[in-house]
Design brief:
This protein is of the alpha/beta class and 433 residues long. It is built from 13 helices and 18 strands. Strand 9, helix 7 and strand 10 form a beta-alpha-beta unit. The N terminus is likely disordered. The structure holds NADPH dihydro-nicotinamide-adenine-dinucleotide phosphate.
Length: 433
């Protein structure tokens, strides 16, 4: 099977191809850029303009043009043998695209190991004035990696342009907590980012767009995004707790001396914070309930549980940075779990909207729960987990934290009846020093 050489197929990656805001559907290159082909794409049915590499980089930016520039493959060089079994191109928007996590994730997405080897993707990367140059560097690295499935890369700093038509939005970018910044200030600053991104997604994303919020505090950011995107399905919003699940599986495997793949039915309840609840009551090792294998309930409650919840902080003390590679891996795991049928008796963790949940959790939160999927991108909450008294009390604690966070950002949630910040304690988020 003939591979398409990226060096000939990928044109103009670093060229600032700006388009007018009024021209959403097509590309309107600057006068200095010459369009030399317009070709029907058999896979997507869409039309693509291919920019001439004769374009100049230093041409003046015309007033009124916005900062989206595009790197497109040249379909003149397609190999029908390679592409005929491919699905329709999926548009994946990623924010914080020049950050640490994205630096790992984007390459996994482009390689096909996340969405499948027959799933071409278009990456729509959101940066900012801060990261403009860095983002072009990211695009150059993607170009140099010769991924046939990567059909197009778009870079921009305006969410309304970058989210256009997105099938998935991976919302990773968020302001990190600086020295002396209180948790409620972080909630407010990041909440504003997610309110704006929610509105942008509502206006321009695919009507079935799915969102995964990674930027912290991710549960409440997801709630804010969801509340500001009334036209998108609420169940399509996720907050990432898969890293916590993976950390819990790792600790149970280490303790039991079993390979980590034998740890199943592991869920994280609640908030992606130090109040999260790694559920050893329902988890299994080799098909048996964890307490029947580990036989040390004190260790499970007093060592395992806080160790998982504080893993991010422990890692930053060692490494000086928050987890990036393992977070990217967990994002890939999260996505794969939605596109692979969940084996019977197993589950995966994701923060989802609680409306109608079977566990009596407040119905207007993004709360991590045990879920399963038929492999169609959707999920259902598993309703038969055993909730003992210990689990019930811990779930209540993390729920109360999320209720307080929701009150704190009431001013960012349209229709909220309460907007008062009662957060006095300063709980760390995983990954914070
Ligand atoms: P980085 O600091 O490497 O990148 C974060 C990106 O956020 C930056 O590149 C920046 O991009 C963007 N950003 C958006 N708004 C701001 C702002 N106001 N000030 C500064 N930067 C901003 O972080 P990571 O990639 O390591 O982590 C990203 C997020 O993921 C963090 O919030 C982190 O806490 C969270 N996280 C979540 C985990 C989870 O399990 N849910 C696990 C690990 C991390 P630009 O300049 O382009 O806007």
């Amino acid at each position: 099977m003939q591979q398409v050489a990226a060096s000939t197929a990928f044109i103009g990656s670093a060229l600032p191809l700006r388009r007018a805001p009024s021209n959403r559907a097509g590309r309107l290159p600057r006068a200095s850029l010459v369009c030399r082909a317009q070709k029907q794409d058999g896979q997507t049915g869409g039309k693509r303009l291919v920019a001439s590499s004769a374009a100049t980089l230093d041409a003046p930016v015309e007033e009124g043009y916005q900062s989206v520039w595009t790197a497109s493959y040249d379909f003149d060089n397609e190999s029908p043998e390679l592409t005929k079994s491919w699905k329709k191109t999926m548009k994946v928007a990623v924010t914080g695209a020049a950050g640490q996590i994205s630096n790992h994730l984007l390459f996994m997405l482009a390689s096909g190991e996340v969405f499948g080897r027959d799933q071409p993707i278009q990456l729509q990367l959101l940066g900012s004035e801060r990261s403009r140059e860095a983002l072009e560097g990211v695009a150059m690295e993607l170009e140099d990696s010769l991924y046939p499935l990567l059909r197009e890369v778009q870079l921009g700093i305006d969410p309304r342009q970058v989210f256009e038509g997105a099938d998935w939005a991976l919302l990773i970018g968020a302001k990190p907590r600086g020295p002396g910044m209180e948790r409620k200030d972080l909630l407010d600053i990041n909440g504003q980012i997610f309110a704006e991104q929610g509105r942008a997604l509502n206006d321009v994303a695919s009507r079935d767009c799915k969102m995964l919020v990674v930027g912290n505090p991710c549960n409440t950011n997801a709630l804010i995004g969801m509340a500001n995107a009334p036209d998108l399905p609420k169940r399509n919003w996720h907050a990432l707790t898969r890293l916590d699940e993976n950390r819990a599986k790792c600790q149970l495997a280490l303790k039991s001396g079993k390979f980590y793949t034998s740890v199943t039915n592991m869920t994280i309840w609640g908030n992606h914070s130090t109040t999260q609840v790694p559920d050893f009551v329902n988890a299994k090792i080799g098909g048996k309930r964890v307490p029947a294998v580990v036989k040390d309930v004190q260790w499970l409650k007093e060592e395992f549980t806080p160790k998982v919840a504080n893993r991010g902080g422990a890692l930053i003390k060692k490494w000086g940075r928050s987890s990036a590679a393992s977070t990217a891996v967990s994002i890939a795991d999260h996505l794969r779990s939605l596109y692979t049928p969940t084996p019977p008796g197993d589950c995966f963790s994701t923060g989802v909207y609680t409306e109608g949940n079977p566990y009596g959790v407040d119905e207007d939160l993004i709360f991590s729960m045990p879920c399963r999927s038929d492999g169609d991108g959707d999920y259902e909450i598993i309703d038969d987990f055993v909730i003992d008294d210990w689990l019930q009390a811990k779930i209540k604690e993390t729920e109360e934290e999320l209720l307080k966070e929701r009150d704190c950002v009431g001013h960012l949630i349209p229709g909220a009846t309460r907007a008062v910040c009662m957060i006095t304690e300063d709980t760390m988020l995983p990954g914070e020093a």
